[in-house]
Amino acid sequence: MGEIDVAFIQESEFRPKFRTTEVDEIPVINLSVSNPGDTEKIVSEIGSACEKWGFFQVINHGVSVELRRRIEKVAKEFFDQPLEQKKKVKRDELYPMGFYDSEHTKNVRDWKEVFDYLVVDPSFIPASADPDDKELRALTNQWPHYPPEFREVCQEYSREVEKLAFKLLELISLSLGLPADGLSGYFKDQISFCRFNYYPPCPAPHLALGVGRHKDGGALTVLAQDDVGGLEISRRSDGEWIPVKPIPDAFIINIGNCMQVWSNDKYWSAEHRVVVNSQKERFSLPFFFFPSHYAQIKPVDELINDQNPAKYKEFNWGKFFASRNRSDFKRQEIENIQIDHFKVTSQGSE
Ligand SMILES: O=C(O)CCC(=O)C(=O)O
Ligand SMILES: [Fe+2]
């Protein structure tokens, strides 16, 4: 054991450390509102978490636990099938949604299998990353026949989590001093999608990663994880990798690139990664809350002034998305596009 394909092996500086020391925890925020003043408290806790970490967990979030059990069950039933069955809904250049087992993050293969589906079917995105190409393409979902209730459960889950995502968007807008609906206009034709991540046990967890270090591109991510653990986030203050402790039925929320830009760097889109283990399989389910393809992303006018000028030039979300997603299909020689490419000065990343 311990032998894995070279495509999975991380450069030594990026390999996991498996520390056992106690570390700082990201904030856990209770979203239930029962007394006057609760919303204000929640808004302030969310604001601090977005600034300090770009990550927090939420409890009493309103998404039914029973639905969560149902989606976990269909996920397990789907991924437990032989590879040939799963490959019947394999994603490719024509159908970018569906099953995939060889994703690369920063050109190293991830130790995982995925299944992606759009929240809105069809969704429209630019046909290419070329800024002069105005053509659009329609993305549609592919659904497996087994387990039979897979599609229905997935659709019910994404509808519920979408409500939570809009709620969080409102709370985050308030925390920035904007009206509650200050950012919702960007999501009229959202291109959000849900992903199942399945991490099989790995014979060489010290060499590979379930997902290599990356930042999520959109506005925010609403992530359900099981009780195995493995997600680590890079602490804003010093870049130290901090594990995110599983809390039963909580959701992990993280700020994506768009929110960092809207907030003009007040809020932080943290780098994160997933370590795997040799004993247990792990499931996680992110909902990537993505604006409409035509959304132009720049620091929000109300948040900039002479003392705090815009730190980013405007960019088109659909083109940014199209450019990032090319790399899902093959190893690339160039690094993925990052928001730092749109920084006004050459301050570099923090
Ligand atoms: O599995 C996880 O906990 C996180 C996965 C992740 O970061 C992603 O899919 O973008
Ligand atoms: Fe991520």
UniProtKB/TrEMBL annotation:
GO terms for molecular function: dioxygenase activity; metal ion binding. The keyword Oxidoreductase applies. This is Fe2OG dioxygenase domain-containing protein. Belongs to the iron/ascorbate-dependent oxidoreductase family. InterPro entries: DIOX_N, IPNS-like_FE2OG_OXY, IPNS-like_sf, Oxoglu/Fe-dep_dioxygenase_dom. Keywords: Iron, Metal-binding, Oxidoreductase. The keyword Iron applies. It holds the Pfam family 2OG-FeII_Oxy. Residues 190-291 form the Fe2OG dioxygenase domain.
